[in-house]
Design brief:
mainly alpha, 72% helix
Length: 97
């Protein structure tokens, strides 16, 4: 499957399974898409905080959790926008599958 076909499938799946529009839309409500964007950035920030907290553990504790320090360092150094992009990509592929 080509990349363009996969993107089209993701768009179609997002259209079908996107956030449900409430029965009554009040002008004071913020856009549903904005809520999803804010949630994505917050989750990415929390993930990065978790990676940084895990780096404080000893090597023995990391091994018991099947984690590697170099991989955690790499994940903790990622910019938030890249973590958000990975989350969205993963979510899109889960919806298609």
């Amino acid at each position: 499957m080509r990349n363009s076909e996969r993107r089209q499938q993701c768009r179609v799946a997002a259209d079908r399974r996107g956030p449900a529009m409430p029965d009554v839309y009040l002008p004071a409500m913020w856009p549903v898409g904005l809520q999803q964007i804010i949630a994505d950035w917050y989750k990415a920030w929390r993930k990065r905080c978790l990676y940084r907290q895990l780096l404080a553990l000893s090597d023995r504790q990391l091994r018991s959790r099947d984690l590697s320090r170099p991989r955690l360092r790499e994940r903790a150094a990622l910019p938030l926008r890249q973590i958000v992009a990975e989350q969205r990509r993963r979510r899109c592929h889960e919806r298609v599958a």
